[in-house]
Specification:
1 helix; 15% helix; 7-stranded mixed sheet; mainly beta; globular
Length: 157
Amino acid sequence: KYSAGRDDQYYITQNTPSCEEKCPDVGVSGEAKIMSSLSQPPLTRKPLEFKTLFYARQLDKEDNVQMDGVAFITVGRSIWETSEGTSDGAEENTTRCDLLLSVNLIREVVVDNGESWCELTTVTHAVSPGIPIFVGKQLGLTAAENYVKDIRKLFEK
């Protein structure tokens, strides 16, 4: 609801989601990309700007994760540097935010009656300059709740 747009800027590896397939260029499985996004939560004067190195892949038994079926992991981290190692210019009409860490573990779990369920574990730590801590905490809780609600809506049909 707060998203104001996302742009996949650069793909490092693409279309290699399974454990067996590896990108011929970098030798890893999964998908890695650099993306930028804008969010406009309530009570903020300017949109929040994120630029993230994002990686996702399917897990296998060798990853030491208890799995009843398939499992995936995503990891994200802010990057604000150019390819030359210098900081890129900030937009004056946005507030730049640092995503210190974002990890999502999505795995299939078989419950006692034999049904398969999806378990989502997510950890995110971000810094948003100019947003008071009490507002940030409330926005974080609201965003987490909306994240789960949006995922559930996709499967309610």
